[in-house]
Amino acid sequence: MPGQVLDKDFLWGFATASYQIEGAPEEDGRGPSIWDKFCKIPGKIADASSGDVACDSYHRTAEDIALLKATGARAYRFSISWSRVIPLGGRNDPVNQKGLDFYVKFVDDLLAEGITPMVTLFHWDLPEELDARYGGLLNKEEWVQDYANYARVLFKAMPKVKYWVTFNEPWCSSILGYSTGLFAPGHTSDRTKSPIGDSSTEPWLVGHNFLIAHGTAVKIYREEFKPTDKGQIGITLNGDGVYPWDPEDPLDVAAAERKLEFSIAWFADPIYHGHYPASMKAQLGSRLPEFTPAEIALVQGSNDFYGMNHYTANYITHKTTEPEPNDFLGNLTTGFIAKNGDNIGPETQSFWLRPNPQGFHDLLLWISRRYNFPTIYCTENGTSVKGENDLPLEKILDDEFRAEYFRGYITALAQAVEDGADIKGYMAWSLMDNFEWAEGYETRFGSTFVDYEGGQKRYLKKSAKVVGPTFEKFIKKE
Ligand code: GBH
């Protein structure tokens, strides 16, 4: 058991994202996003739902803050809907004052309750107009400038925000949005799923553009706002833990490393080391864009902190064939059962997620070592529960499975700090059940139950009251 290793002011709390909770897609001048459009395409969302109502948080900020208070949270990570603030999205398009005011007031309300806001500028809900106008994330020249303008509008309006996340999980926007097509805008080479897209090239272009846009926004923050506002800014990357399927096979060991490079180092190596990983250059060749000197000057050194989203782990098996053109994993397969028969963890409602706290600990140290012990904020961590949606309310509220997940992962985090990682915060995903993207509402990640049939009423689950007391064991008292 780790001791009291976390700073006295360790920032723990809960996280959400705009499209997943807000609803009110047409209210007070909000423009449509690519997710509004994507949800309307039949077959894209499991239960044919959308974020049209979601948790109705646009009308219930006071309830959301009351929930945070009830958990004792010190911080809240939420994201801004770009198309609420700039409905058409572009740098020459008008700012929607009502949309901006909504977030400014929300930040004030959080601070009035002693809750520190951590603001994500982009959690996947690109203004639809930018996609229609010039191809959205694919258009480096236009999109980077529009994002920079949007970021500046927010930095200027919210000087009280001290923690900024430029992007949530660019891997997801790039791969799920432009390779598999599971997420908006749904591009893929698979013509049964989409009339447009090239899975072999587009994700790598989009990933590149994310890095340039991130670096540009960070430069703006550091030059124009940080000297007075004194905040921190970074990007949030997703990454699952890895174990070689056969630890005795050097090719599986190498494949496990490659999996981390294709998911995490794709973005983190340019930011911390100034270039893409060698394994990606070797497999992707000229499909991986090159940084111009001006671009890499923007990207390298652009993180004040490393934002880490983490949920699960996999066993990794190398492939013996040549990489396929649309491969994005690094020529390997992922699974939950090891060669010796070990199961990585119990099933959840999410096909991709099985709890494995050791994988979190090990990945925290992998990131720490590879990037010279950066300050890390864990910006998401949590689980769904198998069959939760079908349980009666009192069973849902007694979510011991999720509570145990948090105990295990928080202990693993404290152990990683004891072992040398520099971790200053943790946001559980999620404050409440919400729109789980392509999986709709059936999969719940909340520490609060949201009654979608009963007027979006919220009920705290057991796990909401476990996160704080678990952290208390590891936080220094002075
Ligand atoms: C987070 O991503 C998101 O930031 C958050 O919005 C979401 O609600 C939360 O997870 C729970 O899902 O096999 O191709 O379908 C977590 C990282 C990476 C997890 C992609 C799901 C599925 C890949 N995600 N992964 S695929």
Sum this structure up briefly.
With 478 residues, the protein is α/β, with parallel strands linked by helices.
Task: Write up what this structure looks like.
The protein has helices at 18-21, 34-39, 61-71, 82-85, 97-112, 128-134, 140-157, 170-178, 202-229, 250-273, 278-284, 293-299, 357-370, 393-397, 400-418, 467-474, and strands spanning 11-15, 75-79, 116-120, 163-168, 232-238, 241-244, 305-309, 313-318, 332-335, 375-380, 422-429, 448-451, 457-460. A hairpin with a 5-residue loop joins strand 12 and strand 13. It is α/β, with parallel strands linked by helices and 478 residues long. Helix 8 (170-178) packs antiparallel against helix 9 (202-229) and helix 13 (357-370) runs parallel beside helix 15 (400-418). It has a single domain (11-240, 292-311, 348-472), classed as Glycosidases (TIM Barrel), CATH 3.20.20. Residues 17, 20, 168-169, 172, 176, 180, 182, 238, 309, 311, 352, 380, 429, 436, 445 line the site of ligand GBH.
Task: For this entry, give a set of tags.
alpha/beta; 3-stranded mixed β-sheet; 14% strand; EC 3.2.1.21; Glyco_hydro_1; GH_1_N_CS; glycosidase; GH
Distance between the termini: 20 Å
Distinct compounds present: ligand GBH
Helical fraction equals 25-40%
Strand content: 5-15%
Structural class: alpha/beta
Q: Output the strand order for the largest sheet.
A: 1-2-3-4-5-7-10-11
Sequence-ordered SSE layout with sheet pairings:
Elements: E1 11-15, H1 18-21, H2 34-39, H3 61-71, E2 75-79, H4 82-85, H5 97-112, E3 116-120, H6 128-134, H7 140-157, E4 163-168, H8 170-178, H9 202-229, E5 232-238, E6 241-244, H10 250-273, H11 278-284, H12 293-299, E7 305-309, E8 313-318, E9 332-335, H13 357-370, E10 375-380, H14 393-397, H15 400-418, E11 422-429, E12 448-451, E13 457-460, H16 467-474
Parallel strand pairs: 1-2, 1-11, 2-3, 3-4, 4-5, 5-7, 6-8, 7-10, 10-11
Antiparallel strand pairs: 8-9, 12-13
The structure holds ligand GBH.
InterPro entries: GH (IPR017853), GH_1_N_CS (IPR033132), Glyco_hydro_1 (IPR001360)
Function: Plays an important role in cellulose degradation. Shows hydrolytic activity against several glycosidic compounds.
Enzyme class: hydrolase
